[in-house]
Amino acid sequence: MSQYKLIIFDFDGTLAITHKAIVYCFTKTFESFNIEPPAAETIQATIGINLANSFKILHPAIEESAIPQWVETYRSFYRTEGEKQLDLFPGTKQVLQLASKSGLSLGVFSNKHVSFVNLFLEKLRIHSFFDLIVGDDGQIIQKPNPSVFHSIIKPLFPDLDNSQVLMVGDSAVDLLFAKNAG
């Protein structure tokens, strides 16, 4: 029997193949403001970081006051065009089915906006596997800060020892979150 009772998954690049959609939407956003977009590899290096900070990294000259408009433009492209480029990694659904049948609790914690996470989990037909879905709502402190673990996740699973929780992710932000949460 597994020592784990709760598995928390990141979304982008862990459950779903999203890199192509993310690069596409960043590129379209830059082009919509008549700014030369960064190289795909440069954009990919910011995946996992919140959008506002990603734009600061990718466009250091951006005015702070312009960031909300850039974020909304990106989200508009993602909502209308990016989601068509999403897909599950091979075997993802089978792993979730097996874990769920084994009695494990499953959750998602993403720095992506929670409305997108819920929408995409539904579109990919895996939403029903998850007991907990946490994403950016403008209020939470994002990964790698462990406050979401201590203030939201842990209270929902009070009988679990931290050693019974497994974080599955694809970025340094995910690993740091797991380490910081204990």
Give a description of the structure.
The chain has 182 residues and is of the alpha/beta class. It folds into two domains: 6-16 and 89-181, 3-Layer(aba) Sandwich (Rossmann fold), CATH 3.40.50.1000; 19-85, DNA polymerase, domain 1 (Orthogonal Bundle), CATH 1.10.150.240. It contains eight helices and six strands. It has a four-stranded parallel beta sheet with strand order 5-4-1-6, with helices on both faces. Strands 2-3 form a two-stranded antiparallel ribbon. Strand 4, helix 6 and strand 5 form a beta-alpha-beta unit. Helix 1 (19-32) packs across helix 4 (67-80) and helix 3 crosses helix 4 (67-80). The mean pLDDT is 94.
Helix content: 40-55%
| Text of the CATH class of the largest domain | Alpha Beta
Which fold name corresponds to the CATH topology of the largest domain? Answer: Rossmann fold
Number of helices: 8
- Kindly report the spatial arrangement of strands forming the biggest sheet: 5-4-1-6
Mean pLDDT: 94
Query: In angstroms, what is the radius of gyration?
Result: 17 Å
Look at the structure and name the CATH superfamily of the largest domain.
HAD superfamily/HAD-like
Number of domain units: 2
Strand coverage percent: 5-15%
- Gross morphology: globular
Query: Which spans of ≥5 residues are poorly predicted at pLDDT below 50?
Result: none
CATH architecture of the largest domain: 3-Layer(aba) Sandwich
Main structural class:
alpha/beta
First-residue to last-residue Cα separation:
22 Å
Number of strands: 6
The main pleated sheet reads as:
4 strands, parallel
Order of helices and strands: EEHHHHEHEHEHEH
